User: Which sequence fits this backbone?
């Protein structure tokens, strides 16, 4: 649940007063992890409510995937892209819970293409699911 600006200020004031996330959390009625995250974001000069961008397994291979999608005119299938990526050393979606079922289940959602800076194609590579599945979206 998103905190209001007032709640965020109370959390940061409690942290400044105590210097300890656990004590500040008790004073402000928040979780210690939330207090640490807000204090760290403030100390780094980032907006406190901005989402954290984490590196993904596919990041080193994104240029190659975009090249394949562009070269095929948007007709390349996700399972084919995954096989090519696996041959290049991509380790995502391996094991009994990865692979074909995940590739089949994860389509792209609205706005995903814009978040990773892709332009529209007939079939747009929109990013990855949290599990590492390559997501393709028919446009």
Assistant:
């Amino acid at each position: 649940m998103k905190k209001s600006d007032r709640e965020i200020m109370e959390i940061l004031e409690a942290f400044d007063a105590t210097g300890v996330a656990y004590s500040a959390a008790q004073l402000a009625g928040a979780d210690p992890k939330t207090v640490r995250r807000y204090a760290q974001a403030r100390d780094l000069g980032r907006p406190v409510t901005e989402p954290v961008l984490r590196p993904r397994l596919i990041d080193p291979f994104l240029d190659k995937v975009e090249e394949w999608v562009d070269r095929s005119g948007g007709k390349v299938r996700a399972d084919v892209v995954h096989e090519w990526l696996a041959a290049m050393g991509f380790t995502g979606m391996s094991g009994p819970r990865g692979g074909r079922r995940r590739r089949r289940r994860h389509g792209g959602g609205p706005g995903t293409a814009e978040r990773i800076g892709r332009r529209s194609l007939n079939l747009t590579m929109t990013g990855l699911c949290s599990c590492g599945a390559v997501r393709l979206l028919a446009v």
